[in-house]
Amino acid sequence: MRKLSVLFIFFIGLFNAQKLTSGELSIINQGDIKTALPIYQTTDDHQHKTLLSLSTEIDPVDPNTTVLVKRMKESLLSTDGGVGIAAPQVGINRKIIWVQRFDKDGNPLEYFINPVIVWRSDLQNLGPEGDLSIPDFRDQFYRSKVIQLEYVDLKGQRYSEIVEGFTAVIFQHEIDHLFGILISDKKEKEKNNAYKKVDAYQKSDLNKR
Length: 209
Fold this sequence. Notes:
The protein is of the alpha+beta class. It contains six helices and seven strands, in the order H-H-H-H-E-E-E-E-E-E-E-H-H.
């Protein structure tokens, strides 16, 4: 029943995706489509506020969405070893991410529009994470080892897939950005015991959905 509720919200979100604002269009269309958008940093107060804001769904078939997707890829490629990026990191609070797929041959970069994690495994791994928007910050975090993801492409076609391992970590990290969650804040909350400690070796029922 829970999965049906999540999927219902997913489709309603697509249907109700608001048009891009004039401010968003200004950011997306300033400069050439083949050039990178600047990556927002927590060291700038205005940019930090954007990074902490909730993102909303975007219309996948809007031509401006295509421009944003392409420019986000250029932004990621302009970094020194970045493996993922979310739209808030280029100043747009919309649900788009790019992820490097280490679970596929050739480790391709792929985009995901309006992504939703509809299931997470109880089994978690502890591993290092950094962030393109947080200078000189790196720490260890618990993430679910396996997730089930729902998303659409630029044609509005819906997809569902199971992702595991390090690639699943990247997805969880980037989708956190869409909820205004930064790993620096996540670590602080963990220090304050706001998060329940998880046994990384706890058995998981992978058939549970």
